[in-house]
Amino acid sequence: MVATPPKPTSEEISSISCYGKARSTVEGMPLSSDELRKMHAFWRAANYLAIGMIYLRENPLLREPLKPEHIKHRLLGHWGSSPGISFLYTHLNRVIKKFDQDMLYIVGPGHGAPGFLGPCYLEGSYSQYFSDCSEDEEGMKRFFKQFSFPGGIGSHCTPETPGSIHEGGELGYSISHAYGAAFDNPNLIVVALAGDGEAETGPLATSWHSNKFINPIRDGAVLPILHLNGYKINNPTILARISHEELEDLYKGYGYTPYFVEGSDPESMHQAMAATLDHCISEIHKIQQEARSSGIPKRPRWPMIVMRTPKGWTGPQEVDGHKVEGFWRAHQVPMGGMHNNPEHLRLLQEWMQSYKPEELFDENGTLSPEIKEMAPTGSKRLGSTPYANGGVLRRSLRLPDFCNYGVEVEKPGTIEVENTKPLGVFLRDVIKSNISNFRVFGPDETTSNKLNAVYEGSKKFWIAGYLPEDADGGELSPDGRVMEILSEHTLEGWLEGYLLTGRHGFFSTYEAFVHVIDSMVNQHAKWLEISKHVSWRKEISSLNILITSTVWRQDHNGFTHQDPGFLDLIVNKSADVVRVYLPPDVNSLLSVADHCLRSQDYINVIVCDKQMHLQYHDMEAAVRNCTKGIDIWEWASTDAGAEPDVVLACAGDITTLEALAASVLLRENFPDLKIRFINVIDLFKLQPNTEHPHGLSDRDFDSLFTLDKPIIFNFHGYPWLIHRLAYRRHNHNNMHVRGYKEKGNINTPLELAIQNQIDRFSIAIDVIDRVPKLKVAGAHVKEMLKDEQISCRHYAYEHGTDKPEIVNWKWPY
Question: Do 593 and 423 contact (CB within 8 A), yes or no?
């Protein structure tokens, strides 16, 4: 027998109800009757436009009764959150004007674009960017038609949405994007509207802690607004169903001062929201003024607002006998079947006419001037703020000469250096030279990733509580520009918001756990790809991700930390926006990092381990190799002036080392073998130039890799990725790739390599197996190599380390 839950009491229902006159923490009626009338008219107009976008392709002002041919054949878009979004937009217009405030509005609720686009059109911004959508009847018709229509714009706040930096297609990132935008923008307030469905996501739940990372002296502020409309697509939302007291305690626990605005009665809700926003903006200004006048940065309790309104507010109460407004049925399109259901068509006509468009728009279809004056003008408009088009504000970094940070290499493969450590020194000076528009991001791993020299340029940001022991190596400061929190989601969100508003950054993280932000990077790639086709979107700084603590040096952490698969994800993205680099040593890493920091509109993924590694090239050679992206290492090859017997190729630091060691074994045992040694830094060189702008032509690829000789490719990641990139090449059938095969646990470095067959012995055996003249003649050497593998594994199990001759191996020639 299934137990029936007890019915809620009337008190419990009223405490979480979205209906009735406004219930507000802040009391007051700041709006005059005339101001109230005009603001409500602006909101009515915005709601009218939202419905028109979803339903209409003709007859935008209902100058004649609606007919089926006026209705779109495919009804797309989401109504449910739109009235709340436009309600807030209407009120933000007022405080922007009242306080002369720079403001950015980030819309978190998924597919909530109608609620943002409507006011954007009313204020004139939309027509400024889309001149065919003019502020008249014909322009309104085009505005309606292009929404969620082939060749038009999407149903969430895409890059085509003026005033947006936030791709609303995937939920969870609004708050972290908002804080990233606020960093180093002292005059900006970012209002972030988080949907209550969105609030159930992991990324958003963690991002509430971003309030501990704002310095009120140098940063702007974020005003988070939790929009409780009660439902997701098909279910109640958690935060809308817990008690008022529990919800208030939750946000107090996060460190905010929460203010509530709840209800459905428009007149009282307008007054309540106006009073609450006035209070919150004044409180933010007070916090900033106190900090800036005293010069003492403290962590205040920043304000936030909980706005509870009905889902589908002002929409149909009921359709076909089912509740709509205030229920999940209002989430998307409240009613369909317009072409064969006259009753639904009649309901739509009544619904749209309830906003009295004849009072809002004149004979030309232009918004009444007295209503339009409720919006700011120029760049103060939310749809025209330069903060939402970061390339307008972006200034190039002042970069030191990276060549001054390299290591001296007199002979390839004879000295060892921690690859990422000199990069930390370079980034230290990048911070010093760009103290207001560059930050370093990482999840509690900056020191672990050997980038700790950055602390000499700027400390880790910390404005929460301090303990005496923090002074001993804590590297904490309220002025710090190194951002660390153990949430890759939040860091990525901060960095994206920072870049999208015109600044620069660098993100380092462990290879196995960069997967935490797979989806976020995916969404950013889509944003960049669309932005390239939006003429007024200016280029922003690239998203630079250093992947370190890599798979081949996770022998101590084990299987859980072994996963190079982020590269497989990133190569799926558009060739216009993604780049992948695998520098094998310090000097090439510095060259790649400098290039990436100078670039725009890309996602640059750099893979380089943090541990001690052999160094191969002086700076001049490293720059040459990086510029070419793929190169024959002459000093490691024996085929000069002749056709090679085999091509040994590699990409990645450890795989390069093992391939070099394999070539030495082959040279010692087969002195006449002609080996061509190729190193790949730019992974997309393997793709044809018809598929990626960095790709090699078929002629250049054939020249390097031959038309018919065996290719043994030792790759850092999963081996099939190389096949994916090179499958169309002429000699692909002779390409044999070694890489990570999900083998390993707590191993020594060489044993881990052996288990995955990327070790020197396996590579040498591959050559013997695939060079025709060695298949039989090389049998004795092949058996010797197998014996050596066994010996190395036994040694590892007995001593817990690799043999000295493996650990201390150097290039002998």
Answer: yes
Coil/strand/helix, residue 173: coil
* Residue-wise pLDDT tens digits, 102-125: 999 999 887 788 999 999 999 999
CA distance 602 to 593: 13
Query: How large is the average pLDDT for residues 593-606?
Result: 98
Q: Which residues contact 652 (CB under 8 A, 6 or more apart)?
A: 550, 552, 582, 584, 607, 714, 715, 716, 717
pLDDT of amino acid 764: 97
Task: Count up the domains in the chain and report the number.
Answer: 3
Q: Which residue has the tokens 């989806």?
A: 519
How is residue 452 written in tokens? Answer: 């700790």
Residue range 7-34: average pLDDT? 88
Query: Is residue 388 a contact partner of residue 429, using CB atoms and an 8 Å limit?
Result: no
In whole angstroms, what is the distance from residue 257 CA to residue 305 CA? 8
On the 0-12 / 13-18 / 19+ scale of CB atoms within 10 A, 180 is buried
Crossing angle of helices 586-598 and 421-433, in 10° steps, is: 30
Give the pair of three-digit tokens for residue 674: 């002609």
∠ Cα 382 541 120 (to 5°):
15
Give residue 590's domain range: 402-464+471-614
Q: How far apart are CA 750 and CA 39, in angstroms?
A: 70
Measured distance CA(231)–CA(81) in Å, rounded: 10
| Cα–Cα dist 745/749, whole Å | 11
Kindly state whether residues 610 and 654 are assigned to the same domain.
Answer: no
Q: What is the CATH number of the domain that holds 758?
A: 3.40.50.920
Phi, psi values for residue 33, rounded to 5°: -60, -35
Binned at pLDDT 50, 70 and 90, residue 745 comes out as confident
- Portion of the chain with pLDDT greater than 90, in percent: 85
Helix (H) or strand (E) holding 680: strand 675-680
> Is position 654 within any domain?
yes
Cβ-contact 142, 151 below 8 angstroms = no
Length of the chain: 813
Same domain, 605 and 642: no
8 A C-beta contact, residue 584 and residue 615? no
Helix (H) or strand (E) holding 189: strand 188-195
DSSP 628: H
Residue with tokens 């380089």: 608
Residues 366, 406 within the same domain = no
Closest C-alpha among 122, 116, 137 to residue 371: 122
Q: How far apart are CA 288 and CA 407, in angstroms?
A: 45
Do residues 500 and 213 lie in contact, with contact meaning Cβ atoms separated by under 8 Å?
no
Residue 478 near residue 297, CB atoms below 8 Å:
yes
Name the β-bridge partners of 10.
Answer: none
CA angle 492, 496, 498 (to 5 degrees): 115
Here the tokens at position 464 are 């929460």
Instruction: Convert 543-600 into a string of H (helix), E (strand) and C (coil).
Output: EEEEEECCHHHCCCCCHHHCCCCHHHHHCCCCCCCEEEECCCCHHHHHHHHHHHHHCE
Give the pTM: 0.96
Is there a contact between 280 and 232 (Cβ–Cβ < 8 Å)? no
Contact at 8 Å (CB) between 365 and 62? no
DSSP 368: P
Statement: residue 76 has pLDDT above 60? yes
- Which of the listed ranges 307-321, 586-600, 737-751 does the model predict with the highest average pLDDT? 586-600
Whether 389 maps to a domain, the answer reads: no
Identify the residue whose tokens are 């107009």. Answer: 45
Q: Residues 423-456: pLDDT tens digits?
A: 999 999 999 999 999 999 999 889 999 999 999 9
Q: Indicate whether 536 and 662 sit together in one domain.
A: no
How many angstroms separate the CA atoms of 96 and 49, rounded? 23
